[in-house]
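Weekly structure sync, notes
Attendees: PL (lead), two postdocs, one rotation student
Agenda item 3: pending single-chain targets
PL asked that the sequence for the first pending target be pasted directly into the notes so everyone works from the same version. It is reproduced below exactly as submitted, 298 residues in total.
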Amino acid sequence: MNLAPIALFVYNRPEHTRRTVEALSKNIAANNSILYIFSDAAKTTVDEVEVEKVRYYLHEIIGFKQVVIKKQTKNIGLAKSIINGVSALCEQYGRVIVLEDDLETSPYFITFMNEALSIYENTEEVMHISGFRYPVEHFESENTFFLHVPLCWGWATWQRAWKSFHKDTAIMSRFTRAAISRFDFDDNYEFWRQLELNKSGTLNTWFIFWYANIFLCDGLALFPSRSLVQNIGMDKSGTHSGVSDDYLVKLSETPIEVIKIPLIESPKGYEYHRRYFRKIKTGILKRVVRKILKLWSC
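Predicted structure, written out during the meeting:
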């Protein structure tokens, strides 16, 4: 199998970065994978010490076929860092696996992502592979299922899908009122609000634009029946995170086989996720906005 490069985006969290890398290095396919690490520069003098701790650690990393470290000399922010890094690797390799510095992976994560990338390589409808499974009730009869919404906690894509992506609020003009409702899982979560906040400048995120692009292309995101990723950054340490247990999952302790399944969104999956999004609707977005407004008031 032609293994995809792994892009890891880091900033100022040395302990989270260490846990992320150590878990990733225990993956079965790690020693045959190239790890690209994109290290953003400190935004403020307060961040400089922690950024340097992260960068010092990066040179200690072993367990991969090759480790390539890309260091920014000035801060460009997470959104631009991810867009630039993913674009570069997609252009070079045609596919990429993406992680941030607060994601602990199952030993079977890399294998699953590469198998899915290979099996669906030429299936235009499939635009995104997710390693994290939302903590909804189990409903799957297969090892994998499709949703129209992606997730950015351990994911992968191809150049054929990524080349259509642009972080541009002009994409909002292509949505009808009915489309906005479905985009928000029947008005059960504030995904559209995230686009509005990006347009106003309150937020500067990238993933909501990726979701919007997939949505307007009638694309699908493949999910595993058991989560292969756990977010360890819901502890106020991240750029857009706060304390939350809304996303707690148990990592899969066994491999997840990937075979082709019908190219339709899981009806049960849609319903279970619609209920889940309704339950957490008042959670993460409001915490993010409160945090940003507090920073602006300083």
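Discussion points:
- Strands lie at 6-10, 34-39, 66-71, 95-100, 103-105, 126-130, 144-147, 155-158, 220-224, 229-231.
- Residues 78-93 form the longest helix (16 residues).
Action: rotation student to compare against the earlier draft before next sync.
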